[in-house]
Amino acid sequence: MTEETMTQKPSPVALLDLARMLAPHKEALHAALERCLTHGQLVLGPEVLNFERDLGQYLGSPHVIGVSSGTDALLATFMALGLEPGDEVLTTAFTFISTATSVLRAGLRPVFVDLAPGLFYPDVEQYEAAWTPRTRAVLSVHLFGEPQPLTQVKALCDRHGALLVEDCAQAIGAKAADGRHVGRVGIAGTLSFFPAKNLGALGDGGAVFTDDAALHAKVREKRQHGCAVRYQHQHLGGNFRLDALQAAFLGVLLPQLDGWVALRRQHADAWEAALAPIAARLGPDRLTLPVDVPGHAWNQYVIRTNQRDALRAALDAAGVGTAIYYPSALHQQGALAAAHPAASLPEAERACAEVLALPVYPGLTEAEQARAAEVVAAFFAC
Question: Is the CATH number 3.90.79.10 carried by domain 257-381?
Answer without folding.
Answer: no
